[in-house]
Amino acid sequence: MKMAEIKSTLELIMERTKNLTMTEEEKENLQKKESAGKINGLVQKYLDRILSVKTLKSEIELEEKAFPEFRQMTETALLDHLQPDQDNRNIFQALEQTLGINTEPLQRKVTQFQKEVEVEKEKIVKTCGDALKERGIFGSAVIPNPAQDETLQSTLQKMKEDFKKQRLNPQR
Q1: Where are the domains of the chain?
Q2: Residue 119 and residue 113: Cα distance in Å, rounded?
Q3: pTM to 2 decimals?
Q4: Which residue among 25, 59, 87, 98 has the highest number of C-beta atoms inside a 10 angstrom radius?
């Protein structure tokens, strides 16, 4: 075999794929996939406080010029990170300052969720306290721990899932 006859793998691939082209649908799907990856990276960097809200906004504006759906995809990504039982100020800030979304309805829904959680916790504390009294365990030093109650944990998980399903679409 002569050296001239040996082709690199890259040359072979280039020969076999030279007539292949992507359809418009394939190009669009590839762009969506690439944009989703970029969005996830930007949002995570913002949440990790590596990016400022100002930088996030400029990145969104830059990417939106090339891919108009970028803005909506960013909104969805931010909302996916919303945890109703945690502090969401940075998510609300990003929604408001980078996308111009009024988050008050969503903030009210989160506050309502947190109130409902407290009501559930109080019910469990009372139930656990009553159960302990029935077993002869009572006194000022006995404080039921609702965080250890499996019923509460499953109830909270269901409440979170319901919240995610029914969350308000923030209004612009």
Answers
A1: 21-101, 103-172
A2: 10
A3: 0.74
A4: 98
